[in-house]
Amino acid sequence: MIFQIAGCNLSVDDDGEMLERLPNFAPFRMSDVLSVSSVRDACAVRLGCSFPLCAAEPSFVSAPDGREIRVWFTPEYCQMSLQMPGETHACHLQADRHWRQVQTDLGLHTPIDYGVLNDLLMLSFIYNAAFARVVLIHASCIAIGDEGVAFIGPSGIGKSTHSRLWLRYIPGTRLLNDDQPAMRLCPDGTVMLYGTPWSGKTPCYRNEGVRLRTLFRMEQASENSIARLGGIAAFRMLLGASSLMGRDGVTFAVISETLSQIAGLIPSFLLKNRPEEAAARLSHEMYSQCRTS
Question: For the segment 71-110, what is each residue's pLDDT rounded down to a tens digit?
């Protein structure tokens, strides 16, 4: 089964039940007549594989949302283990350094396995798509016609709330993604913003792309105000919002270069705001000024 996300191709040798168990991927499915070999630069994910596990100490360990992730880097491949909260065993993944060939020992037997598969596919997409100048970011984003804006900040800062204010008070708006949209830097310098199969708690899985016009760094405040961010501050904002493995020099180099260029191309602002209509109108006014300047 082949999917296209933000213009990047991802294939999975699933058991035939994937779309029933993970309907968030359905809008991104490509034609059944296509083969993996006919799709340029596809990231191919194979399930139920066996491979030697690294015996050395991992390069780093992290535990996002209670999931324990261990990662090993070698010159030839990256190996990763993922253990879900409350589980006693981990699944393992191994990929070449450009993430074009990915194999995992995961078998699809329980609903939990499909949740693990969702995470493994997101990881595979992140690091394969990086070489196509595509970056997944933690943001909520709104589309207006064929253009869009992204609201960036840590969890709980009010990104989704601000998107809902736009949907309520700004005519012609629609939610593109509420958690993990993808940005793509095109050869002509255009930056595109895409929906993905990953949208957090909000089921919004749009297979569409719009031109990114403005970025807003969200900050809660007692009064609404807006200020332009310089290039370095915009880069730091994007780097903090992106999904990457900082200790992997191969992918970190390409992702940080992409973010650096986007920071210099897209106007970015610090939006101090209250959760109210006036804040949405203030950010929309700045978006309107940017698109006409």
Answer: 999 889 999 998 888 777 889 999 999 999 999 999 888 8
Q: What is d(CA 22, CA 57) in angstroms, rounded to the nearest whole number?
A: 33
Sign of CA dihedral 278, 282, 287, 289: positive
Q: Which residues contact 169 (CB under 8 A, 6 or more apart)?
A: 277, 280, 281
Residue 39's pLDDT band (boundaries 50, 70, 90)?
A: low
Domains and CATH numbers, the chain: 2-132 (no CATH), 135-292 (3.90.228.20)
Per-residue pLDDT tens for 139-169?
999 999 999 999 999 989 999 999 999 999 9
280 close to 226: Cβ distance less than 8 angstroms: no
- Measure the N-to-C terminal CA separation of the chain; round to a whole number of Å: 43
Mean pLDDT for 23-30 is 95
**Whole-angstrom Cα distance, residue 251 to residue 257?**
10
Angle at the Cα of 118 (from 196 to 177), degrees rounded to 5? 20
Cα–Cα distance, 289 to 14 (Å, whole number): 47
Q: Return d(Cα 14, Cα 46) in angstroms, integer.
A: 8
CB atoms within 10 A of CB 232: 10
